[in-house]
Write a structure and sequence with these properties.
Elements: E1 2-3, H1 10-17, E2 22-26, E3 32-44, E4 55-59, E5 73-76, E6 78-80, E7 83-95, E8 106-115, E9 118-129, E10 133-136, E11 139-141, E12 145-147, E13 150-157, E14 168-176, E15 182-192, E16 194-196, E17 199-206, E18 209-211, E19 222-229, E20 234-236, E21 242-247, E22 252-253, E23 258-262, E24 267-279, E25 287-288, E26 293-300, E27 303-310, E28 316-324, E29 341-343, H2 344-347, E30 350-354, H3 360-363, E31 369-371, E32 377-378, E33 382-385
Parallel strand pairs: 2-7, 3-10, 3-11, 13-22, 13-23, 24-32, 24-33
Antiparallel strand pairs: 1-10, 3-7, 4-5, 4-8, 6-7, 8-9, 12-18, 13-17, 14-15, 14-19, 16-17, 19-21, 20-23, 24-25, 24-28, 26-27, 26-30, 29-31
Region (Disordered): 203-224
Protein name: Lipoprotein
Organism: Spirochaeta africana (strain ATCC 700263 / DSM 8902 / Z-7692)
């Protein structure tokens, strides 16, 4: 349907015409040259909202697809006068037998309209009048891309049920054809577990999307996605991906935490923290003691090793330790699969504190164990008091 150009002010049309691309539309001979401006809107079929960033292609002959090659002009929709979805272009053609002779002509063009989130369309537009601004009928597109809300869940250690941070998770969402079956095209989303409401091991995917060509206009869409642990250091206790049903515009908590075990490895690491507190004579409260030298020493396959740290203004210190085991090493009983621990007896683990305010009897405080699956390992606070 062609609307008369008087509904849009001429001055408005002239200002946009300066930026319009002028490309030839060959409809016949070359005796008469004609020009026409075409404009209109592209909108969502269900909501009536204008769609920006849609591509509008202009064809002389009807194309096989909305994105076929052979178009003679192309433009994109944008916001104009506060209204999204607007497009405008100028076409020029020459014709031996014009409809109105040298005074003007009338012809037909085809528009191919595409957008990543919508089903493309080819529209026939007859009655394009030369030397005029032709306002075309509004083109409606059906949405075929949908998105869920937040998809979230938790990963826990298979041994003790504690949350595990730093695990790489992958959510795979298939696209659906007009029969609602997977097309073979899939979208992958990646998340890493971390803290949520004070608990470790939580992952979250924000608005994963998919295409569904089978949904009625304005309807919702559902799809079966797959979620799995895909991490070099961790694997699922059950290696098969888990299926989760996603519904467009709805949050989804993945039921039942996924149980993870460590991949076999020979190198381990852990973080150790501690604090030294001091109470001067006559004071009521302890305060952090800065400048205390803390030496952590241990042995592994590479020999004797040590790390030295110094307490800060609040009396605390943090050290990162790593150690190596020989192939085939079996950790002590009770250690989760893929984990290990440094122990005082077997690995000569010792933590020593040195400061002028520390007696020799208090220097050696670290005969215990450091566990690779605990973050962080906390040393008991060392309390010191000044003698009156």
């Amino acid at each position: 349907m062609i609307q008369n150009h008087r509904r849009i002010p001429r001055r408005y049309g002239r200002s946009l015409l300066l930026a319009a691309a002028v490309l030839p539309l060959l409809l016949g001979g070359c005796s008469y040259y004609h020009r026409a401006t075409v404009q209109g809107f592209v909108e969502d079929e269900a909501t009536g909202t204008g769609i920006n960033n849609a591509t509008v292609r202009f064809y002389q002959e009807e194309p096989n697809r909305p994105s076929s090659s052979g178009f003679f002009a192309r433009t994109s929709t944008s916001t104009s006068g506060g209204n999204p979805g607007y497009y405008r272009n100028t076409v020029v053609w020459d014709r031996y037998f014009s409809e109105f002779g040298a005074e003007g002509d009338s012809g037909t063009i085809y528009l191919g309209v595409t957008h990543p989130d919508y089903q493309g369309r080819v529209i026939r537009m007859p009655g394009i009048l030369s030397d005029d601004i032709n306002t075309l009928q509004t083109i409606q597109l059906q949405r075929v891309t949908f998105a869920a809300g937040e998809v979230y869940g938790r990963v826990i250690r298979a041994g003790d049920g504690s949350g595990v941070n730093g695990v790489r998770m992958v959510l795979t969402v298939p696209d659906l054809d007009d029969a609602g079956s997977p097309t073979g095209s899939e979208r992958e989303y990646v998340a890493v577990t971390g803290m949520r409401t004070g608990e470790s091991g939580w992952y979250s995917f924000d608005e994963p999307s998919w295409r569904d060509a089978s949904t009625d206009p304005g309807g919702s869409s559902e799809v079966d996605a797959r979620i799995e642990i895909d991490d070099p250091d961790w694997k699922g206790e059950n290696p098969e991906p888990r299926t989760v049903r996603l519904i467009s515009e709805q949050d989804r908590e993945v039921p039942d935490s996924m149980r993870a075990v460590r991949q076999p490895r020979s190198e381990f690491s852990a973080t150790l923290t501690g604090r030294v507190l001091y109470r001067p004579a006559g004071a009521e409260e302890y305060r952090g003691l800065a400048g205390v030298e803390v030496e952590i020493s241990w042995s592994d396959e590479r020999g004797d090793r040590s790390e030295i740290r110094e307490t800060g203004p609040d009396g605390s210190f943090t050290a990162s330790l790593s150690w190596q085991r020989e192939e085939g090493y079996l950790p002590p009983a009770g250690v989760p699969e893929g984990e290990d621990m440094l122990r005082a007896s077997e690995d000569q683990l010792v933590v020593e504190y040195r400061h002028q305010k520390i007696d020799a009897a208090d220097e050696d405080r670290g005969r215990g164990a450091i566990r690779s699956w605990v973050t962080p390992n906390r040393m008991p606070d060392l309390y010191l008091e000044e003698s009156p």
